[in-house]
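As promised in the previous annual report, we have extended the structural survey to additional targets. Below is the entry for Potassium transporter TrkG.
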Amino acid sequence: MLDRTEPVPAPGTASARRHPGRISTALRSSPSRLAILVFVVLIFLFTGLFMTPMAAADGTTTHFSDALFTAASVVCVTGLATVDMATHWSVFGKVLVVIGTQIGALGVLTFASILGLVVTRRLGLRAKLMAAGDSNPLRTHHGAVPEGQAVRLGDVGTLLLTVAVSTLSIEIVLGLLLLPSVLVTGIPFWSAVGDSFYYAAMAFTNTGFAPNAEGLDPFAHDYWFLSLLMVGVVAGSIGFPVIRTLTKQLRSPRRWPIHVKLTLVTSGVLLLGGAVTYIALEASNPATFGREGAGRTAFQALFLSTMTRSGGFSLVDFDELHGSSLLVTDMLMFIGGGSASTAGGIKVTTLAVLFLAAVAEARGRQSMEAFGRRIPSDVLRVAVAIVLWGATIVAIATVVLLQITHEPLDRVLFEVISAFATCGLSSGVSSALPDSGKYVLAATMFLGRVGTVTIAAALAASQSRQLFRRPEERPIVG
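The corresponding structure token record, generated without further manual editing, is:
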């Protein structure tokens, strides 16, 4: 076993200059802490850029609270806004939005590793560990993980290439396919090109910003355009490890890792189940689906179910939904998309592991099993920690925002979950927030994007070892 302790360099030596203090050592030894630091630096960097007069369409300085909120929403690929994203920002501001979403979608550590790979044409061990930790939260914990990983350390270089190529190729193809629909609306050619690739980037990164003030209204009956948006959102939300597996082993599903199978099956069940639920709840609502035909209702329900999984685009006014539909939307947003993806939430594999644990307990089995594989108990502990931290963040933010805004609970809870899950759907609360409320939602977006496991690993000494075991005693549960 490797010794994790490092010798203390002598003062004045070159080694000492490379290790200026405990803070630097802590950052080097913990990719999770580095992730938090980089995200914070990026958010404040983009805040400063958004505050420059050249970023605003009218040439004025954007208020700090709006710039900070926008920066957090962009870097955390959320999609919430306190200003009109289509009219407030200049061309330079919109370029900043696209760049920020690309960095946030790829993951700062993965993005940094891609740059290192391009520059040096090789990845060092530390860069591989950082990238692997960004794609698999279990690597933030001390010790070897016993099960096969969704991303093995030796495959990190290939994964990073997959991330870069898949992101670029998917967004380019989407932009080209969306271009005819944008041209049909009467937008000049070069503006249409910009809008098409803007929509493609926002769909794949699961951000949901629109480049025009009307949003999706011009495309409300363009099923080609809306279907492409759904394809982009799903492609971004299933995760890069899944994309890599599908591109290399599409015809050999039996060889797919359990992570890929759980992600695809759970995502499919949630997608179709959400659509059926929306049809059942909203078919009689004339303000949403009630006046539409059967085919139109089914399509809109599928579109809504897709976008609640972190997509952020919307065809309906959420103030018109029944309370039951809002609650279903809250649950779908909280779950989110796949691990190591552009989506947020607690992730579909977390839900799958909790479900498998409940099934194993009901059957009286000691271990969780799926697709002929046994899932270790430490995965369940991580899943429980993710849900607990996520629920705690949502609860605290909701209570604070209720006190600040005095808005109804269902609207505030909807906005908070959308921020935490980096979904971007809004009940309208964000547009009328005071500065204190903007800071609360910005912090919620940050915590949701960085990840509850990363936060827990950074705050607690997750790499500390306990060399003894206390006597066992069982409390009464339930």
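DSSP finds 19 helices and two strands in the chain. The CA atoms of residues 278 and 406 lie 28 Å apart. These points will be discussed at the next consortium meeting with the crystallography subgroup.
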